[in-house]
Records
---
Amino acid sequence: MTTPTLVPYAEAVSRYEPTIGLETHVELGTWTKLFCGCPAVFGGEPNTQTCPTCLGLPGSLPVPSRTAIEYAIKIGLALNCSIAEWCRFARKNYFYPDMPKDFQISQYDEPLCTNGWLDVTLEDENGVEQQVRVGIERVHMEEDTGKSLHVGGATGRIHGADYSLVDYNRAGIPLVEIVTKPITGTGPLAPLVARAYVTELRDVLRSLGVSDVRMEEGSLRCDVNTSIAPLGSAVLGTRTETKNVNSLRSVERAVRSEIEREAGVLDSGGAVALETRHFHEDTGITTSGRSKEEAEDYRYFPEPDLVPLAPPREWVEQIRRSLPELPSVRRQRLQDEWGLSDKDLAALRNADAIDLVAETVAAGASPADARKWWLGELSRRAHESSTELTALAITPAQVARVAALVGSGALNDRLARQVIDGVLAGEGDPDDVVKTRGLAVVSDDSALLAAVDEAIAANPDVVQKIRDGKTSAIGALIGPVMKATRGRADAARVRELIIERLS
Amino acid sequence: MSSELTRKTAVELSEELRAKNVSAVEVTEAHLDRMAETEGHVHAFLHVAREQALAAARTVDDRRAAGEELGPLAGVPVALKDVLTTADMPTTAGSKILEGWQPPYDATVTARLRQAGAIILGKTNMDEFAMGSSTENSAWGPSHNPWDLDRVPGGSSGGSAAAVAAFQAPLAVGTDTGGSIRQPASVCGITGVKPTYGGNSRYGLIAFASSLDTPGPLARTVLDAALLQEAISGHDPMDATSIPEAAPPVVAAARQADVEGLRIGVVTELSGEGYQPGVLARFQQAVELLESLGAKITEVSCPHFTYALSAYYLIAPSECSSNLARFDAMRYGLRVGDDGTHSAEEVMALTREAGFGSEVKRRIMLGTYALSSGYYDAYYGKAQQVRTLIARDFEAAFGQADVLVSPTTPTTAFRIGERADDPIAMYLADLCTIPSNMAGNAALSVPCGLSPDDNLPVGLQIMAPVLADDRAYRVAAAAEAAFTERWGHPLLDDATGPASLTAKGAGR
Amino acid sequence: MSITRDEVAHLARLSRLALSDEELDHLAPQLNQIISAVARVQEVAAEGIPPTSHALPLTNVYREDEPSPCLPADVVLSQAPAVEQQRFKVPRILAED
């Protein structure tokens, strides 16, 4: 079979209507696993965080964590879902070495939360803000599997490996699976909608404090379903399920690439196969995984080791009352408080800097200053060291202090950057760095005047221009003064002194 | 001396131990000696924990010598079905696939026995993964009925029943999913109880059918069974299906032992065609006896009981097909075919093929079928509805009667090999016991004589509502007292097996 | 309703049982016999009857989110058929999950 060519995106969406759906797995940030008291933390030595229950040893039994259920209800409420009055866990039966019991305790036809929605905003190709309401089909709970290391063959790949090594530390960590309804009618925006949805979902989950939602570490994992149908067709096309989508950018790219590929298949007279596909970060394309043709028969049935969940309504209402301000509401509030345009806000959001700015403002900085530092200097640092803003070794309180020192004239921007260097290098708080590096602005006019006089004497032609009325030439005198004071002068004061001297 | 000790009941041993007339080590040695004498014939044990048992006995003796106040089971030997995990003994559930498996943890029942100072003698034989009614499905060979070594001791807790009937242990723990305590107790002429589901913890019980499995006691007297039950019962936070309410006071009920004014319902559907005439005769006699003791006998109908066997053979295999999936050669137990040429999938299939016996495979396949998409509603779903109807039948019947009675099993012990390749005939052994597993209520079997047609023991099943286990003990103890008085001695004294196995032989 | 030898072979694959041909020959009629016997449940008038999956009406049994001790890794791995790098060593896995 020849591989059909990809159809360029713009052309693909001019003839086909995409439908997408997302299934997102979120690791809950509980202390313990879903059904046993083993720690649910990331990255212990292999097989040190297990017990008979999460190892699925003969005779062991699961007992659910109340907190995990509470978190799942919290998520459901934040996503505007109904919370089931009565539901059960079910066993999903399939054999796999990383699954200790060879069944997964999950939920099937009785999910804990159903029928909600999440509003997401995105900018279309013309920079116009669009809002899309994404329907939430269900939110249910299940347990995570262990992790396999594939040895031999191409490194780390399952295909061609000689054998595998399994670590069950992750087995039993609580997961919540959030499934959208099919998202239709978004046309060429589909990839952006997918990305905006996962972004908004991530922000909601983070605001709830139920997960650390790190896609890179796998605490938020996304499967993307994509299908296309000829424009105007009443029938949906066959969908594929793309796994291994590990960043927000990949979500968008995976959908785009699947649309291009499926269009190619249909254009060449083929049929899209119902299958699992894998997304490759490096190439940006998907490749075929497991065929779903011989559909897995999971033989779901109610988990007999667990009793039904019937969350009392008072409990649900209590959880509802405890919900924090959700990101969309908060963003609107902050936008008003900070006087931002939609674009300003979008920039902050894209940089994942809203929380940082808010905390910096809370620590005393003005919204404008806080934005300036985080989106300017600090974003540049993060970019340089290929890390996230949130991962920089500087706290909002420290940024607020730098802004305050600049505001009071104790630092100029250039010195402030050096202070930030010091803080990032672990030299302590801004005031410590100022002290140890001797970075305070020279505020003694007599010291400055010597440097000013020196600059005037050394640049008679510039002095002449200024006297002729070209005040913009003053900068050419400020430079040497700053140099002479090794940057510690207040440029505004230097300017004043030069004007004084020449008048 | 030593043989006299093995003939005593647990209650008698407890009293002797408390009075320091005998030491726990002496009691333990007596039973180990009895085992050495009889195991060659009975094969009740898969693992005898001689050293651990003697060490535990010494500890009990030391504690008692130090003046500690110990519970009634301290120093009393007990045999544990090999389906309950033990951190210091292998646990195989009668299967080759778990050969040599050493669990890293104790089942809750095991832990409570240790806490009570009971002496665990070893692990008893059973049908593989508790699937069977004869112990012939054990990967390690069948156990034999002490009444007639050519006959089965019942199953799946056949080893536990045979050990108690052969005086190797005064007490044994079994598990009952469809009758696996009551049926072997019945055919071995002893008492066996399936408590209310959730009354005894399942933590550490290697699951066959999770919604039905119940651990419970086997003993030579009703009071002994009650003593063991009180030691192992009660809420366990490790088992989400464990009942939070206080356990019923079964020892007091067994001591009360009267039926005066109680309404006893005879279940119409649990008799008639397919029942051995001698079994029905003894059952009828037992009902008359209870009436003579002051009970009011009524007949009750439970129409859906006739579907119980069918529903059971859908529900239990379905759950087992899932519960037994974990035996996949990856983490413990047998691994077959790992020679570098086979994939994990193939090694799983080769290991399961080699490690499971034919009955286990049959049930896994049956359960896989019943849960398959397209068949679920017609089989598993329907069986779950029948389960509701059975529970409703019980509810209605318990409106008319305080306890219900029936024969425990339609026939006496059958011959080894007789039903080996006829699964349906084998399944009929659980006809009367299954309804109580389906509804979760308490039920027990107490001896009611020897069948006149073959001189083998017949059991009387007494069923009580959920959490009214004490009511069944009360009736059983009354019947036991009246029968013993009528026979002039306990039923086991009538055993006619090889002299070395019978009570009389042991006493001589 | 009868079950074919092919269906039995399919069930064996689903159940991860490498049944021999002789076993298949033996099992197919046995399963057929059992299935037709248990199919009696379909005769029951069960319209509107709720299914029972749990014998007792317990609900909402939880555990508090408090850590309990884990097993030491050497104990966990002591029963494993094969071990490497403190992990369970398993044969190569064919199907991707």
---
Amino acid sequence: MAERTQKSKQTTRTEEAIVETDAAAPAATESGEKLKAELDDLLDEIDGVLETNAEDFVKSYVQKGGQ
Amino acid sequence: MALPKVCGIETEYGIIVRGGESNPVSASSLLINAYMAKVTSRGASRAGWDFNDEQPGSDARGFSLDDVMVPELETSLVNAVLTNGARYYVDHAHPEISNPETTTAAEAVRWDRAAEEIIRISVIAANAQLALNHTSRPAGGEIVVYKNNSDGKGNSYGCHENYLMARETPFGRLAAQITPHFVTRQIFCGAGKVGCEAPGAAHDSVPYQLSQRADFFEEEIGLETTLKRPIVNTRDEPHADAQKYRRLHVIVGDANMSEVATYLKVGTTQIVLSMIEDDALGDDWLLGHPVPAIRHVSHDPTLTATIMLADGRRATALEVQWGLFERAVKYEQHHGLSSVGDEVGRDVLVRWEHVLMGLESDPASMASWVDWIAKQRIVDGYADRHGIEPGDARLKAIDLQYHDLRAERGLARRAGLDTLVNEADALSAMTNPPATTRAYFRGRCLAKYPESVVAANWDSMVFDAGREPLSRVPMMEPLRGTADHVANLIDESDTAAELLARLGS
């Protein structure tokens, strides 16, 4: 099974896609840093909008079961 | 040839009243009434929902529980039909919007976005009323609505999908063959959850999982939707010609904040169902033990856990998805994708492959498409930054707030998710129906003849055209009553009486 899946998976990829991945490798660190900077900005923003008393908020979030 | 996979999403939203008396039924009613007061023109009556043909106790396996089951629909509660063809009502202490019938995943996402906007406007209108009405509620009470599926304390509420199926497709085969998709599609359409709610498991035994809903599924197949939930629901209530159609009522999914996730959830399911209807899927991926498998997959964000197939082999959820995807590629070559809309169907295939490749090589790369990954990024990032251990209430608060529909508070809208629907299209879908299904007739009639529509439901409308008796217009064909069929008729009829005369001629 695993073998068959592996084989058929590869047929879905184009050579192009594989080459692209290799060529993109040097840029990976750069984009990794960009992602981290974006996450830092996002976390800064989230610090500003997060519910102030998390414990009370989580405790009081009670729903009746539905479908 | 598979039938067009007419589809619709129904969402029960979470609701709380902050700083006020929290009665979810009255809060939900207030929400809907406030919206209807805002959008219904003065003097126009409001059409009610017509319960005549509702039979939620009918089972696809051929028997009926309607006589012994308490009706699930509480007819006394607020219930409205919107000009976009949707139903907006109170169900099980939650506000629910059942979107109009659509034909493609792209349309389904557009009306799902419209539903979010309807909720947003409702919340603003309801809170304005609460602020004015200090006598019945403490001042400062505020309604907040969440598009999620669990409160983290073992209570779940649904986001259901519905798909049109041919009656002649054997239900047993349909149930068996769709199960592998329902168990494994959560790797790209799970909405993510902090903690565990599986019966008997400690909340912190699973710090983070893929799905909101997986913990609540206890059966492979069955009629229930609120207890002992089944992966395949057998409710047999086609809301259409029962000789020709069934409606597959899917209760296993999460409500998605990510538009791409909703698009993939609906689009891939439409394609898999088309393959089943054309008997082109085969039994290679049937599962051995679907109930433990759905949790096993959900509880493993590394995507490396394996589940047992019916023939004893083991495979990861990704491998099962690759298997279904490859069948879908072959299906497209041999049958085409007209049942899901050719152009949208091909785009779904491209994105389906892309998301599987991303999940396989680097799940974090899918954070702009996949809710559970976008949420996990925030939860983990926040925990790292503040040195928080799993189990801290702040992480659960992030989980809940990811789904907060308020623009100023919601975290999903800050998470960098890709969008598919532009703002103008989402806003216009709040009041306009899809052109491609009978929802068009329903919505246009409600907009143009509000005083004459006495009641509406999925498969009929009742008109009072000023003469006795009332006229019921049956709509048993989901693909009749489209813009192509009736736009001119409605445009040319100034009154409901004229329309009915033209329809009758």
